Amino acid sequence: MAKVSPNILVVDDDVVILKFIEFTLKGLGYQTTLAKNGKEAIDQAKSQHFDLIISDLYMPLMDGNELVRRLRQTPEYQHTPFIFLSGNNEEDTWIKNLNDGADDFITKPIKQKIFISKIKSHLKKAYLRKDILDSARKDDISFEKGNLIYCANRIKPFPLPRKHLKTNITAVYSDSDFFMALQDTNTWGIIIDDKANWAISILDKITEIVSNHIPINILVTDADDMDKLESLMQSKISGFLFKNLNPKLIIHQINSNVQREHDLKSKYLSALNSAAKRSPIRFENEFQDTIRDYNIQILHQPYNKLPGGDYYEIIDVDQNRKILILGDVMGKKWDAWFFVPAYIAYIRSTINFFVNRQELDFVESPGKFLDIINEYLFKDIQLTEVFTTLSIISLCTSSNKISIASAGALRPFLYDGIDKTISQLNIVGTLLGVVKGIKYRSLVHEFNKGDKLFFYTDGYTEAVNDRTGEMIGDEAIFYILDNNKEKEIIEPKDVELELTKIYNVSKFDDDRTLLLIQRN
């Protein structure tokens, strides 16, 4: 459930703008904290929790880009909405801002209606994301995979008996260690020693971040110190554990709390999985289809097993024609997935309307479809500016032609079965919903026996080589395809397995999708 009064940090060296934003946000019932530069903002973020951050781009001492980079390095602010204020309308500047970690930008002079709409939109998305992820961090919720966080006094930690605990326990001795541990899967609870002054001093910040989804218990030294107990009860804690109790009673109380959390998450995950199965959106991890001598295979892997921004769709036109779409909403996991149904709805309705109409030939000009969908999306999302890439592929077996149009997607690879060569097709275009009235081009290619067409999303190219610390890029895709080009049918799962082995990729940090079209 969303909080009644979000806490927003506003950073700008212009006092007039600070006061204007403060007045606007307070009019919405939001709490505001003001800072005149990035250094002040960092200090404020250390002492309290913010639900959203608004920052000027150009400031003395520390500019907005350095501020967002610094905040994204701290676990508690990795996903906090960050919005830039800037009078710079250059596209290169926006791209740099987004790459540095910003979620959005508002141009100066500030238009109050647009400003309010964006703030509400980002807060809503943040709360939706937090509600879901906090209640169900992973589909495996066994006790062995879970964790208790124990905030202890470094010099003299109280020895919690671990032998009979139902789950693991991680002792932390600083705020940075705590927030790092909080990123682990399934935190069943937090125990804070009242002698751990570093944790007690940021207790309000901790309770704000974990909200109501992780119970917090204070380990109390003196059960008769009512002044201290009453002070602690003012914070949103769940209860107390008393050091003078028999260790068996302490263990029993901790295990009871863990069991309760486990039962609640199990019920929530069961309901969530039931809802996902009824979703009209395609989320099969593996998909295969054939039409005449064409073979279509898709491998779709959501990030951390949670639905994300990648999406695909296969539309049967008739016995000779199929339309394939592959898209990627910017973002990860649920915060991107929330927008996928809207995009799919636009795409489906538009295709269904035009697919058999003479004025739009999908085989020859899928780019015209992107022209249309771009106009719809531009009108609908110009306030929230949630962008998506999209490739549309029209396959016609009667003419043996494949037509491709792209909106910001990665360029696909083509293996020519006759020439035995691999090339990256020169088909590019602007992200959907960014520029009004843009015209997308179509690339029409005759597809011969032995040809292979290879589409992929950036979850693969942005994977990191563990040995070099660098992203593997398009070159890795080319290398794997070149290794397997002589196979009659390339299997997407084999491509991914070979990619991880050769390029030392131990994990993927984004949704990823492979789409292969092969003619036998």
UniProtKB/TrEMBL annotation:
Annotated protein name in UniProt: Response regulatory domain-containing protein
Keywords linked to the UniProt accession: Phosphoprotein
PANTHER family named in the record: RESPONSE REGULATORY DOMAIN-CONTAINING PROTEIN, STRESS RESPONSE REGULATOR PROTEIN 1
4-aspartylphosphate PTM positions: 56
Positions of the Response regulatory domain: 7-123
Domain of life: Bacteria
Phosphoprotein among keywords: yes
UniProt cross-references to InterPro entries, sorted A to Z: Bact_response_regulator, CheY-like_superfamily, PPM-type-like_dom_sf, PPM-type_phosphatase-like_dom, Sig_transdc_resp-reg_receiver
Keyword field contains Phosphoprotein: yes
SMART domains assigned to the protein according to its UniProt record, in alphabetical order: PP2C_SIG, REC
GO biological-process terms attached to the record: phosphorelay signal transduction system
